[in-house]
Amino acid sequence: MKGHTPTFRGDDTMKRSTYGIIYGLFAALFLLFVWYYNFRGDRQDAWDQSPSGLAGDIEDKYVMVTFQSGLDYWRTIMKGFEDAAQGLNVSVEFRGATQYDPHEEITVLEQAIARKPAGIAVTAIDPESLNPAIDKAVKAGIPVVLFDSGAPKSAAYSFLGTDNYNAGAQAAREMGRLLGGRGEVAVITQPNQLNHEERTNGFRDTLRAEFPEIGIAEVADGKGDIGISEKTAKEILARHPEVGGFFATQANGGVGIGQALKDLGVAGRKTLIGFDTDKGTLDLVKDGTIDATLAQGTWNMGYWSLMELFHHHHRLVQPGNEDPQGTHSLPPYIDTGITVVTQANVDQYYAK
Amino acid sequence: MKGHTPTFRGDDTMKRSTYGIIYGLFAALFLLFVWYYNFRGDRQDAWDQSPSGLAGDIEDKYVMVTFQSGLDYWRTIMKGFEDAAQGLNVSVEFRGATQYDPHEEITVLEQAIARKPAGIAVTAIDPESLNPAIDKAVKAGIPVVLFDSGAPKSAAYSFLGTDNYNAGAQAAREMGRLLGGRGEVAVITQPNQLNHEERTNGFRDTLRAEFPEIGIAEVADGKGDIGISEKTAKEILARHPEVGGFFATQANGGVGIGQALKDLGVAGRKTLIGFDTDKGTLDLVKDGTIDATLAQGTWNMGYWSLMELFHHHHRLVQPGNEDPQGTHSLPPYIDTGITVVTQANVDQYYAK
Lengths: 352, 352
Fold this sequence. Notes:
Oligomer: homodimer
Order of helices and strands of chain A: HEHEHEHEEHEHEHEHEHEHEE
Low-confidence stretches of chain A: 1-10, 37-50, 322-327
Shape of chain A: elongated
Number of domains of chain A: 2
Strand order of the largest sheet of chain A: 2-1-3-4-5-11
CATH class of the largest domain in chain A: Alpha Beta
């Protein structure tokens, strides 16, 4: 036991030194983490120079505002918004006016602004009503972008949506190909809505330029209604039995025409090009009544909306090209694209 | 010295235990870092689910290909490309054909493709020549986007550039404002180049629609040359002394007109709107000869080119909307914007 005390004393010294070293290492580890988190944390007004990439703060909330919030159409847009948020480590929130009512959407937008989010993506129920609310948000330093339906005179930084003229052009090319470059066609549209007018113009101009042997027998109003479009298609075929193809600039139009072709026993024998990818349209693509439908780049609308808002919030715009008045240099327009959906790829478009 | 040996033994034990603990902690630290780097490292074909944001691998090389690589015009585009690369933790490389020669640019592009980069951003010297090389790259799985000058029939995924029609429209609004909505103007352009034709059309249509009391006396060819534009401007003013404003759709045109106005002693008394932000133009903005010039969103061209290439390389496009044939859903067009440069903000545009 001679060595006992010294051993104890040694143990004691050892323990004290060891604890010191352990404490030191833990302190170092702690400092390392503090440094690490400071280094790559949210630096709002500067480039994130760390090698960890583009990342935000999970506390930053980006809001999407819609109208008729029950519409299936918004689902993929919301998914794109969410996917971008996940990639960038930020949060999202969805606020929708339930009705097709400008006043309700204004209220919802005002409520979103009041909560001072990191950014707002909004789709405009019409080109004018939301302008005062949008301008107020921008003035308050909240970046705003518009998707799907724009408000050109507002102060919003960017518009992300379909190039409708080009969508009509793509429909014309599909029609020209399917008809072998000749024949008569008809269009069922909503003549008083700008996006539908642009689709019709793109369709008409492209047929004229690239398929001069295809004529347009009629351009008719389907009023965005399945029943009216069905009736209209039947009337057109009664007046012009030579019509070999239809282009519907809107989803219900395509479903209505499809119904008419089925009733008349000519489904699959007349070419039909629809628009959008609601379930009714997809079912008719699957059974061969609709030859092709045009899918809008809805995921892109949501994804790149968030990407733009994030870039503005973090001032990742052209360095030196800003001023306190809110000058910015985000791309003013992003064409979110069109994909042609046929029997070959229709299954990808059913809601999962 | 009685306690000497035990103390030594104690020291010895202490040392061994302490080293063990230190080794253990270092091993833990090492494992932590291994885990950390694995966790947030390059996962090429999937969403990076970590909270560290969008990040690539510094080994991934994205290449930009230009022609007339000495042109000052590319500088800000390259800066945008670099800034995005820094943000995303990837590498860039710049390859330029030195001459205005399609064959040389094809060779440079082919060399870039051979090195199998993560993506290529290229500006097309003309709309056709590069198509076979671009299509070859896309077929080989290398994403390609076009900036500044497009090649619409190529397989490239996207085009990022100025909406030239809109640029002309903005010039018209600036002209209308400066002339107080009335008077005669002239345009000096290059009539056979598509982008210049679009600028002229946007200018003409917008004046007609929004400033019906402003007439266009002449649209003349300046051949992209300072001397010829100067001579042309003098001839126009001799024929039409009532002309109160000029719009040049191209940088040299603006400088040439400015020279003419100085020679005739009317600099600052005739309205002059130029294009682009080369030093010659900026100097004339600074001294008041050019009232406004239109700066293209060159930084955006580079920045968002890399952003799109990165998204395709990492398959961060619409989930479920891909197939082995290379289907993709990047936005097909990004309008990189226009900023009006006047004496108020001209200093920001000088090369730093």
